[in-house]
Amino acid sequence: MFRLLHVDFGDGAPVEAYSLAELAIHEGDPCVLDVGNMLEFGDVSRIGRSLDELPKGEKLPQVLRRATLQDQAKAKENALVGRLAWKTSEEKIKALELEMCLVRVHYSFDRKKLTVSFTAEERVDFRELVKRLAEELGVRVEMRQIGPRDAAAIVGGFGPCGRIMCCCAWLKKFTPVTIRMAKDQGVPLNPNTLNGMCGRLKCCLRFEHGCYKELDRRVPACGALVDCSAGRGHVVDRNVLMQRVRVRLADSRVLDLDAEDVVVAKSAPDRRPRGGRRPGQGGREDDRGSRSAERGARMEERGSG
């Protein structure tokens, strides 16, 4: 038997790991994990369900033990050494004149590997940087170029809603966010409103979009002709989240009603000709047809005369 755990490494949303069912560990406990044959240190943020067997095709980190006092002291020492490595990295970057911004410098728990995360507008040739860091620090160096969203998840912070940013709390994978999602939700197209702390479109526009689309189907569109208890009118405003509409009646009264209290009236039959053109607004083909018809009529009149 195994248990599914959520472990916080301090570089974004907690990741899934597993432990043996008999391991004595609880939420909030520090722990030592085996991540790809390398030891890491983290904190258990949540204990999930029990598993009879591990998921196939997915290699999860294993929680080896609850961190001892010695483990915790070593983790604090690694954090201190990591700050020194950060300063060294900045000096090397400045000396090599590389256009990159450091986000995180992290030692593995066993201090066999140093991971340097950074952001850059373009691809950076960091081979010389890796060589110099490895020579001075005496460890294997791994460079990771990450995007603005990953950087925001590592740095952390609070969103405009006042809560911890989703990328720090629970969002593990970033999916594309489009401006169409903002339009569907009626969000003002203002960068200060649409963009998150990372400078990109807010992730919440993506995972709230499905809910908005579902609620939107239940509310008549603006301009729709609807019937209510007070008569017939047109929808002049709508609130998708509150499921309410404002209806202007024929006598100019405006009523604020629940979407369930109105029924979309049957539209009048479409009297437009086929092809979607209105009478009297034909295109060039219609004009040519009418001209040829006039010529044919004149020729018939001359023949009969």
SSE order and pairing:
Elements: E1 2-8, E2 15-20, E3 30-34, E4 39-51, E5 62-66, H1 69-96, E6 101-107, E7 113-119, H2 127-137, E8 140-145, H3 148-155, H4 166-169, H5 179-184, H6 191-194, H7 204-207, H8 209-216, E9 225-228, E10 231-239, E11 244-249, E12 254-258, E13 263-264, H9 284-304
Parallel strand pairs: 7-8
Antiparallel strand pairs: 1-2, 1-4, 3-4, 3-5, 6-7, 9-10, 9-13, 10-11, 11-12
Helix pairs in contact: 1-2
- Which regions are unreliable across 5 or more consecutive residues at pLDDT < 50? 268-305
Q: How many β-strand stretches? A: 13
* CATH superfamily membership of the largest domain: K homology (KH) domain
Number of domain modules:
4
Q: Report the sheet with the most strands, covering strand number, pairing sense and barrel closure.
A: 5 strands, antiparallel
CATH hierarchy, class of the largest domain: Alpha Beta
Counting copies of identical and different chains, the oligomeric state is: single chain
CATH architecture of the largest domain: 2-Layer Sandwich
- The number of helical runs is 9
Strand ordering within the main sheet: 2-1-4-3-5
Question: What Rg, in angstroms, do the CA atoms define?
Answer: 32 Å
User: Span from first to last CA?
Assistant: 105 Å
H/E series, N to C?
EEEEEHEEHEHHHHHHEEEEEH
Structural class: alpha+beta
Task: Tell me roughly what share of residues is in helical segments.
Answer: 25-40%
